[in-house]
Design a protein that fits this description.
Blueprint: H1 3-37, H2 43-111
Helix pairs in contact: 1-2
Length: 113
């Protein structure tokens, strides 16, 4: 499982837990306070408003989670590119040092004769 998949899965699990425990209860309190101020609404209208608001909060929480996952994936991708660039430069430097060592050895051996 790639790091992006692990991050996606972990964040989805965290989102579900945190959303259920904190965000949803806070949203219920907010919508209950709003509905309490609206005495002229029928029970069905109040229920519709509550349902719509909670669905909207779930949608927003999902958008935030997707944004976090995307940000982590971008950071992971950038880190991977930096590491590969560093490894490529290290490989080039090692190849150059090997060639210089070989050339120096050939020069020393040929000048000693």
């Amino acid at each position: 499982m790639s790091m992006e998949e692990q991050a996606t899965r972990g964040l989805a699990d965290m989102e579900a837990y945190l959303y259920q425990e904190a965000h949803l209860s806070a949203a219920r309190l907010r919508v209950a306070a709003f509905i309490a101020q609206s005495a002229e609404l029928t029970h069905q209208q109040k229920r519709n408003i509550e349902e719509w608001y909670l669905d909207e909060q779930k949608y927003v929480a999902g958008m935030v989670t997707r944004h976090i996952v995307d940000s982590i994936a971008k950071a992971d991708s950038a880190q991977r590119r930096r590491f590969l660039r560093w490894m490529r430069r290290l490989l080039i430097a090692m190849a150059i040092l090997t060639l210089l060592t070989f050339a120096g050895t050939v020069l020393l051996v040929s000048s000693g004769r």
